[in-house]
Amino acid sequence: MPLSLSEESYLASSLSLRPPCRPDGRDQHQFRPLDASAGILPATNGSARIRLCDGGECIVGIKAEVVESRKEDVALVEVQCDIAGVQSNSPLHTFLCTTLETALRNTLPASRLSIIHRYTYKLFIDGIILDHVSHPLTLFSMTVYLALLDTRLPKLIPSADVASTTTSTSSSDQPIGLPQFESDWQESVPLCDKAWSPPLVQLAVLAGKNVFVDPTGEEAGVGDGAIVVSWHQGKVVGLRTVNTRDSSKQVFSASRDVTEALTRVVS
Q: For residue 64, what are the β-bridge partners?
């Protein structure tokens, strides 16, 4: 239910206090409780589901496909998302997919998906947001993060570097090795390890000089502005501002104070 003008004014004043006061009693750097599970879709390489305490729910499945890496600069990550009650060509849909794709492509080394010769894996990340009350970016990003941690890739058979049967040749008339994999899924290898973990993209709301992570719909509605922050391996790697209110209001710049506050959240 939309807030009245007096409720909006009271909430905005409460969030701007030093220290601030959130309606649910959370600290400004504290996330809401959630229920998370991984490995829920057996026909995928990785999957996850997250449900928030406000009723928001997201499911993500990841599939890895073997492609030729030299074909027209293949993009190794493709993100798609369906949002219940929202058209697939809506600005929100485009925002979620492009934001996650950009974060993953900027941090995922191509060598991590490379197989042999001219073959590599391409990750297809498909999500569905069954319900959302607050902005779904944080929910979608965390579900993708958990699904990537759950993702496993088939183990390559070392002796299969060059296939015994060649179906095509390269431009230099050299045979192209066709990758072959272990059929036992117990031999599969995880995509993520200590050397690489997925990035996280979160929405933070500004109110006065305060920064709030994981904002509710009401908090985002009365905030002075919002920041999309991407972090990877414990560091802020991307920061840009968006406006959650009317277009006539000034969008906040990513000041040094805001950057330092978000860095403290990560650490």
A: 123
Is this prediction's pTM over 0.90? no
* Per-residue three-class SS string for 23-63: CCCCCCCCCCCEEEEECCCCCCCEEEEEEECCCCEEEEEEE
The Cβ of residue 255 has, within 10 Å, a number of other Cβ atoms equal to 11
The length of the chain, given as a count of residues? 267
Q: Which residue reads 């922050």 in tokens?
A: 229
CA distance 35 to 58: 11
Residues 151, 188: Cα–Cα separation, whole Å: 10
Write out pLDDT tens, residues 42-68: 999 999 999 999 899 999 999 999 988
Domain boundaries, the chain: 31-192
Class of domain 31-192 (CATH, top level): alpha beta
State the Cα–Cα distance between residues 74 and 69, nearest whole angstrom.
6
